Amino acid sequence: MFDYWNKFKNVKVGASLDDNWERAEYLRKNTVWTDIVANRKQMLKESPDTTFFLSSTISAYNVLHWPDFHREWIEEGLVHPHSLNLTILTHPERQSIQLLPDEYKKQVADRWYKHMEYVQEAVLKHNPEWGEYDTSFMEGIIKFMYADSTFDTEFNEFLWNTKWFDKIRGNDAYEVYPELEQLKAFEIPPDDPRYKPARTY
User: Fold this and answer.
1) pLDDT digits (tens, 9 = 90+) for 3-45
2) DSSP states of the chain as a string?
3) Into how many domains does the chain fold?
4) Is residue 54 situated within a structural domain?
5) In terms of residue numbers, what domain contains 172?
């Protein structure tokens, strides 16, 4: 395949990777992470002129950990720090980052702002002629997260939907994403006026 790519002057590859290791395998079923890494390393070796970028979708599942994934790939030389396309998941709303409780949103914002500083430094190191790198597109994740709160209507749905899918697929989200464990404490109880029965399970 790479021999074929090398016959063209301009080949771009956007990898739909939302996280790393078992987290990636959880979010996109049938992903084999070791194969992903091996293929990327082979691409670098056999088709180094191919333009490669990460195309990640940010959801309630991966929003806190995603900066760690991005940093890992930068430091391992698997992606240039600026080679990135971010998409915000808006539907289904029960997986949107807007449903997260405020305490968790603050953790997310803190981590993303620190990561933006890291990315700016990494880009400057990789492309010093660029000067300061504009990370406003990354800040857009935080702005969207705080633009609305769907906690009252969607948070329980997120917990229930996760439990339902884990049962069907034989997974455990809280084992794969241990940072989500803290969210259980925010479940809206049946005696709370905001409580609504599960919609679809």
Assistant:
1) 878 889 899 999 999 999 999 999 999 999 999 999 999 999 9
2) -HHHHTTSS--EEEE---S-HHHHHHHSTT--HHHHHHHHHHHHHH-TTSEEEEEEEE-TTTTTTHHHHHHHHHHTTSS-TT-EEEEE--SSGGGSGGGS-HHHHHHHHHHHHHHHHHHHHHHHHH-GGG-S---HHHHHHHHHHHH---HHHHHHHHHHHHHHHHHHHT--HHHH-GGGGGGGGGPPPTTSTT----S--
3) 1
4) yes
5) 2-186
